[in-house]
């Protein structure tokens, strides 16, 4: 039996805010299996963003262990952490975070530049990723301001898929979209999950839990519920 793709063991994260110490995560232990689709919910300040940063290798815990694809990322240096993040994790953001001066295709190519993938192969894979994200090829040459919100999010999803990571992290992926477009984006994420990608979605929207096979609820930095 293979190791879980994500494992947090008694993870704590403390921040100093002025003269006070904030306990953003307080002993969180979570195991996520390969191919899971997990939604993470909780009120503002519950620790959702901090948890996402831990899984995304964007931050390290004050104490505890974080394992990604079998590697304890709390014990590696920054260069190794960057490599683990690049090879294992794709990020989808609420704000899309596309570069306005680049075309859709060029935005998708960016992660592959850092992976030193040759230009010809980059373009071919970027077109593949846009197809996976169900964006018509005719939009590949369009810049973000020439695309609708839903189309921009599809470009962002394609960019997250560019290095073919086993894990996708989505932070409020439908937050800037109307309900119809949001539904189509979630259906796309379900299809990616069905194809084997592990999905972790942070959201305030209860409706998104209908698409996942598991919901983790955080309260005051702790897991208050874990629903399958």
UniProtKB/TrEMBL annotation:
PROSITE patterns: ABC_TRANSPORTER_1, ABC_TRANSPORTER_2
Any one GO biological process: cell division
InterPro entries assigned: AAA+_ATPase (IPR003593), ABC_transporter-like_ATP-bd (IPR003439), ABC_transporter-like_CS (IPR017871), ABC_transpr_LolD-like (IPR015854), MacB-like_ATP-bd (IPR017911), P-loop_NTPase (IPR027417)
GO cellular component, as recorded: membrane protein complex; plasma membrane
Cell cycle keyword on record: yes
Residue stretches making up the ABC transporter domain: 6-227
SUPFAM superfamilies named among the record's database cross-references: P-loop containing nucleoside triphosphate hydrolases (SSF52540)
Top-level taxon in the UniProt lineage: Archaea
Sorted UniProt keywords: ATP-binding, Cell cycle, Cell division, Nucleotide-binding, Transport
UniProt keyword annotation of Zinc-finger present: no
Any Pfam family: ABC_tran
GO molecular function ontology, one term from the record: ATP binding
Listed name of the protein: Cell division transporter, ATP-binding protein FtsE
Phylogenetic classification of the source organism: Archaea, Methanobacteriati, Methanobacteriota, Stenosarchaea group, Methanomicrobia
